[in-house]
Amino acid sequence: MSELTKHEPHTVYIKPSKGIAALNLRDLWIYRELIFFMVWRDVKVKYKQTLLGMAWAVIQPVMTMLVFTFLFSNVAKLSTDGGVAYPVFSFTALLPWGLFVTALNQGSRSLVAHNNMVTKIYFPRLILPMSSVFAGLVDFAIAFVILIGLMLYFQVTPAWNLLWTLPLFLLLAIVTALGVALWLSAINVQYRDVNQALPFLTQFWLFATPIAYSISSIPEKWQIVYSLNPMVGVVNGFRWALLGTGNGPDITLWVSTGISILIFVSGLFYFRSMEKTFADTI
């Protein structure tokens, strides 16, 4: 058989991946060192040339807790579930909220802020919003130490199920924050209105989430609709895991969890579908 016969031309059909394979999540493992580098860089840049440095991770939630305590506990006389001291009650909710706000503010701007990387080199663009969310875990850890101090001061006994439930609700908080960050970061590439809407969105979402008040303040007939806010399940889950307050895994938690997963999965697919246009649009 001649060499020409051996190497006859043939056609290879390349089809686009579908389903979960289209997300190409394997690249995240290949570029895991870049994820660590970007997280560390985001933490350093956030506090670079600041006088108080990482103390801001404590000052912000503590000041918010003090304002909420004055307005909603001393003035409005709102009660807390289980009679927990109001500063502990509100600060527990501010922990996952701080992680979520980081996703809103930093994650949504991550692609535009790193436009030189997006337009010049290849890497999984998912890394940028991911690193912004994971960088928020540093502030979370610092604020968590303050919460432990508050619980000791007010003699609040941790819930018995803390060790196995808190990691699950922390994961739920990360999934929720990352899902929103994926949507907003992809939209922000094309429509810079996201930057203008963020302050309003953050403020609205804050008061639409049971941080300053308990979900029991919401009429029972509206609680299912209210739990369509994914942060409702996150906040109530944290309080149940840390303080033992609330009803635990009830229907409102499952509704919020379902919405969180829906936002995350749809955000992944939307982000990947728009990724090929980022370099041209940004």
Rg measurement, Å = 22 Å
Mean pLDDT: 85
Number of helices: 12
Shape: globular
Biggest β-sheet strands, sense, barrel: none
Low-confidence stretches: 12-17
Number of domains: 1
Order of helices and strands: HHHHHHHHHHHH
Assess the beta-strand content as a share of residues.
under 5%
The tally of strands reads: 0
Structural class computed from helices and strand pairing: mainly alpha
* Helical percentage: over 70%
Ends: how far apart?
Answer: 55 Å
Describe the protein in words.
71% of the residues lie in helices and 0% in strands. By secondary structure, the protein is mainly alpha-helical. It has one domain. The longest helix has 31 residues, at 251-281. It starts with a helix and ends with a helix. The model is unreliable at 12-17 (pLDDT under 50).
Task: Please summarize what this structure is.
The protein is an all-alpha fold and 282 residues long.
What descriptive keywords fit this protein?
mainly alpha, 12 helices, globular
Helix-strand blueprint:
Blueprint: H1 3-6, H2 26-30, H3 32-47, H4 56-75, H5 86-113, H6 115-120, H7 127-153, H8 162-190, H9 193-207, H10 223-226, H11 230-243, H12 251-281
Helix pairs in contact: 3-7, 4-5, 5-7, 5-8, 5-9, 5-11, 7-8, 8-11, 8-12, 11-12
